[in-house]
Amino acid sequence: MDFNPYDVAMKELVLDDPPALLERFGITPPGQVEEIDSGITTLTASADKVFRVHATEPYLVDVEFQSSHDTDLVRTLWFRQVALDHRHNLPVLTALLLLRKEANSPILTGVYERRMGDGRMINWYHYQVVRLWQEDPEPYLTASVALVPLAPLTAVSEPDLPGLVRRMKERIDQEPAARSAMLWTATYLLMGLRFSGELAVQLLEGVQAMKESTTYQRILREGREEGREEGRQEGLKVGLNVGEIREARRYLILLGTERFGDPDPTTLAVLGAIPSVERLEALGRRMIADPTLDSWEDLLR
User: Fold this and answer.
1) pTM of the model
2) In what helix (H) or strand (E) does residue 171 lie, and over which residues does it extend?
């Protein structure tokens, strides 16, 4: 399973303020919104995030994020809707957020029809689609702060990015330190979907330079230096596998530091000895899923 930093960032933002993202799909919950188990069956991957809306007549919302092209995406979403409906016996709204143009397809019309060879309709499925690069950045800058990190992926040109980041700073830096760090981390990860890493670092280092030096920025610099050094040392010997492990480890350290503080040398040694993306990704998922963890030691135990 590939480590997907964009997926991690999006799930962090959705959990930060679920109703805010639902409203961007035109879904205004009339009651409390509660995350529920998104697992469906062992035959398919879980849905990205599923929420139960406690209305007079409750329903579910399946929020899906997509950053790459998938020719079978609509059928997968249809299957998940049917499976969630069957498991919870509730109507299901599916909201698909396309994070970049590469994820787009002419078949993503918001409607999926299944017909027999003679043309008879046997299934009709509706879902909502938001193409982020077509969105006006203003609602993302002025709505819930949980949506602010998505602003660089909206209809904004590269020359306008410095001004956009300044406006983002006005919102994000008003938040408590831990939340602000999470939002800037998500911004950095998501900007990599559209812009070069060098540009993202340049813009965000400029923002953070207005504040005291942060662990976030130090880890970014160390991660880049470590990546370059490992790339030189490993060369073609192990190819992409080393790169994937390195990226997984770097993002795990980045997210963990914001939650637990700086890892000590022993922790870094343990993380450095983990040989697979799958194990690093499992630790990242545990960190997100388990609110009781309060230290690196707890995470690695």
Assistant:
1) 0.66
2) helix 161-172
